[in-house]
Automatic annotation (TrEMBL):
It is an enzyme of class 3 (hydrolase). It comes from Gouania willdenowi (Blunt-snouted clingfish). The keyword Cell membrane applies. Keywords: Blood coagulation, Cell membrane, Disulfide bond, Glycoprotein, Hemostasis, Hydrolase, Membrane, Metal-binding, Signal, Transmembrane, Transmembrane helix, Zinc. GO terms for biological process: blood coagulation. This is bis(5'-adenosyl)-triphosphatase.
């Protein structure tokens, strides 16, 4: 046992004899699912039972401050721990969960454009001002990360265009229903089925695919002509259920804007973007009013988020690959802003030419791709990767700019970040967080639904603070601080209670 105090009295010895320093904070008593520190009542009885000893003890003046400090700080830990487990003690089923994605909603659009309905939404709940998404910052990889909690290299949906070297299959988002490309992960709408829940998804990427031989209870094939009110109407119907079938416990809803407008006009086109962002905000208002009308508002948890942001492009920022090497030297699998190449000739020769191709493009061999991207350990990632700088576009040849706005760039760029807002009985009210990783949403949603999460790259520790039943306290940090404070107080107490001549020697030694 570690000695906490250099001059421990007998009553402290008896109290700490069965405890290690960690036990003071980690020992728990579980009653009815509530996890707490050793009851304060027990500590009070222990202190009261020793009142006469304490009163007569000449060391009382140095022991009581530490006891009181310990009681106060452990009380804080007890409160935070109790809060963090309160939801698990409830026997009632969790509220349904709805997640809505507005594709291409860049985080700073919240400040650049009037969004009265969305502001009203997150002011009643929580707002994550910037969500750090996964690389590449494309639609399919990030939508799959949101519902699996996995990086692209882990769930296998690594790009908008893919080639699998084992099966020689090709993937494009316009032909995406082959389960082969999705089966490396399990989305939450499948996981929730195992808990006996019904689930639904309205045009969320991958939701109409027979992933691991299963689909959501309700889903719709992608149909761009279906307007937002109709999509929302289907989702609310699925949530409510009817006389024949109970409502779903999880639902996902996808909408294409503001991504479409951002691609056509670019995010810096204020006129076009203002018009589209008003439509997006009107859709948020419709969402809130429909949930109110149907009686769902206040009884379900609602998350609004996006997959990525958008960067402004220009015709004078083109990177032409054919200026660097002949087209016979490579096969282009995916284009811009992250180009994926298979060398047809000597790989090192091709790489050397691409490496010095353009000042605003960085070339990597897959095996040397930076760890922070989590984009290396999958065979669908091609041998050579080219990353354009923000706002630059990779083309094979010519002077035509494909899009005025684009995404897919480095996921550390603020222009690539979306946001997250959430409202419901499980969320805090009026709470803001500056940033969070998008993979942390999945374990949070699993907690909200009380379903066991599949292995994932996220962490509930990074998102639990959004929940009103969870604590924002960093318990390990608190324990460290408490132990540190107690040790410092012990050292000071020892010095102060030494004889004067010994105290002088101790202080001079310090």
């Amino acid at each position: 046992m570690v000695v906490w105090y250099s001059t421990a009295s007998s009553y402290m010895d008896s109290w700490t004899s069965s405890y290690t320093p960690d036990d003071w904070f980690s020992r728990r008593s579980t009653v009815g699912g509530r996890v707490e520190c050793e009851s304060r009542a027990r500590r009070a009885r222990l202190i009261r039972g020793r009142t006469r000893t304490l009163d007569s003890d000449p060391n009382i003046d140095r022991m009581l401050p530490r006891l009181l400090l310990f009681n106060f700080l452990c009380g804080g830990v007890a409160t935070s721990t109790t809060e963090s487990h309160a939801s698990s003690s409830l026997s009632s089923p969790p509220p349904p969960l709805l997640i809505v994605s507005f594709d291409g909603f860049r985080a700073d659009y919240l400040k650049r454009f009037p969004m009265p309905n969305l502001s009203r939404f997150y002011n009643q709940g929580v707002l994550v001002e910037q969500l750090t998404n996964v690389f590449t910052t494309k639609t399919f990889p990030n939508h799959y990360s949101l519902v699996t909690g996995l990086y692209a290299e882990s769930h296998g949906m690594v790009a908008s265009n893919m080639y699998d070297p084992t099966t020689h299959k090709h993937f494009h988002i316009s032909n995406s229903t082959d389960a082969f490309w999705w089966n490396e992960a399990e989305p939450i709408w499948i996981t929730a089925l195992d808990s006996g829940y019904k689930t639904a998804a309205m045009m969320w990427p991958g939701s109409d695919v027979n992933i691991r031989n299963r689909t959501p209870t309700h889903y719709a094939h992608y149909d761009k002509s279906m307007k937002f009110p109709q999509r929302l109407g289907n989702v609310t119907h699925w949530l409510l259920g009817d006389d024949k079938e109970e409502g779903v416990k999880f639902a996902a809803l996808y909408w294409e804007e503001p991504d479409g407008t951002g691609h056509i006009y670019g995010p810096e086109n204020t006129t076009a973007m203002t018009k589209t962002m008003k439509q997006v905000d009107d859709n948020v208002g419709l969402l809130m009013s429909e949930l109110n009308r149907t009686g769902l508002w206040g009884h379900i948890n609602v998350v609004i988020t996006s997959d990525h942001g958008m960067a402004q492009c220009a015709a004078d920022r083109l990177i032409r690959l054919d200026n660097c090497l002949g087209p016979d030297n490579y096969t282009l699998v995916d284009m811009t802003p992250v180009a994926a190449l298979i060398p047809r000739t000597d790989a090192q020769t091709v790489f050397a030419l691409l490496k010095k191709c353009h000042a605003h493009m960085t070339a990597y061999m897959r095996k040397d791709f930076p760890d922070r991207f989590h984009y290396r350990n999958n065979d669908r990632i091609q041998p050579i990767l080219l990353i354009a700088d923000e706002g630059w576009t990779i083309v094979q040849r010519g002077n035509k700019l494909p899009r005025m706005g684009d995404h897919g760039y480095d996921n550390s760029l603020p222009s690539m970040h979306p946001f997250l807002a959430a409202v419901g009985p499980s969320f805090r009210r009026g709470h803001r967080v500056s940033t969070m990783d998008s993979v942390d949403l999945y374990p949070l949603m699993c907690r909200l639904l009380a379903v066991p999460p599949r292995p994932n790259n996220g962490s509930l520790d990074h998102s639990r603070c959004l929940l009103q039943a969870e604590s924002c306290w960093d318990v390990p940090l608190i324990i460290g601080l408490v132990v540190g404070v107690l040790l410092v107080l012990s050292a000071i107490t020892c010095i102060l209670h030494q004889p004067c001549e010994n105290r002088s020697k101790t202080l001079s030694a310090l």
